[in-house]
Amino acid sequence: MTRITMKTFLKIVFAPLLWLINSCSPLGNPVDEKKSDSHYYNKQKSDINYSPMGNWFELANTPMNADVSSFKVLTRYLATDKHRAYFMQHPIAEGKVDLKTFHAKEGFYMSMIGLDRNHVYQFSKEYGAEIKSIVPVKIEGADPATYEAIDYLWAKDDENFFYRQQKVPVDYNSFETLGESFSRDKDSIYYHALSNFKSISADIGSFKILHERYYAMDRNTVFVNHYTGNEEDTHVIPIPIAPGETVRLLNEAYVQIGARIFYGAEPVDLDASTTEIIGTYYIKDHKKVFYQDQWLQDADPQSFSTIGDFNVGDKKGVFRGAERVSKN
User: Fold this and answer.
1) How far apart are the first and last CA of the chain?
2) Partners of 267 in the β-ladder
3) Which pairing describes strands 90-91 and 114-115: parallel, antiparallel, or unpaired?
4) What is the rounded radius of gyration, in angstroms, for the C-alpha atoms of the chain?
5) Given 140, 163, 192, 209, which residue has the most CB atoms within 10 angstroms?
6) pLDDT tens readout for residues 276-323
7) Using CA of residue 308, residue 314, residue 318, residue 320, what is the dihedral sign?
8) What does the alpha-carbon distance between residue 53 and residue 40 come to, in Å, rounded to a whole number?
9) Which residue from 239, 260, 265, 266 is spatially nearest to 248, judged by alpha carbons?
10) Are 177 and 168 in contact (CB under 8 A)?
11) How many angstroms separate the CA atoms of 123 and 137, rounded?
12) What is the pTM of this model?
């Protein structure tokens, strides 16, 4: 008797479902599958449909009312025809870009950036009761001939660096990023988070990153990225290093400066010589257990540890955050 493998069994079970989904698909062939997995002809080839990643069943399928004969895909997000330019399924506000020279550049991080002979653009959605139009926003000071996005946060042209699409006042030839929250040039150390970008008082020669996002130091100071997600409340906090103190990053949440333990910039009252990290946000010594910077007075430090793959707690039960959620 022939044995059926699991792979073959799944094909047999799901083949009718896949056939049904494909037969019901409103999508025709992709317009240019090398450049976009989201632009498709409709079945009659009388319009272009925008369906993110071709997932019309879950992520929608929108007729673009485009001129099919002149339609040109630029990237997954950008396209043109003889009448207008498009961002995703939406036409870009008429007259806001130079249509004859509007184009895109290759590269993953450039896929949402449009360019014409005069400007570099990012795009925002203007809302009414629903999306009214797509408004191109000029990236001021950017040279369209040489502009390139380095990653999600940084870009450059042949004269300037840009952080979150804003030109930043740095020395171009010596500038370098140092992790997610700090950077430097020959003259300054810079802190950046959300749209904040500013120089900080730090020793350039001894400055180094302790953690990709949260901690850095120089010979005199530990710098903490106080990142709250609130633009107005996000800033860097300096913690002085006393003479003779050494600095040790314990994990992404905790840092030790001499005999002092900090959660971010908040001191945690622990004996550094008996400190032990539990998971990411729990820490204990022989007398106390803390969640972040909160003392868990009900926790037993001797038995507090990880429990299985996902829980932490002590002999009396399990904790979630700073709360005991179960008792033995």
Assistant:
1) 53
2) 262
3) unpaired
4) 27
5) 192
6) 999 999 999 999 999 999 999 999 999 999 998 889 999 999 999 999
7) negative
8) 10
9) 260
10) no
11) 6
12) 0.84
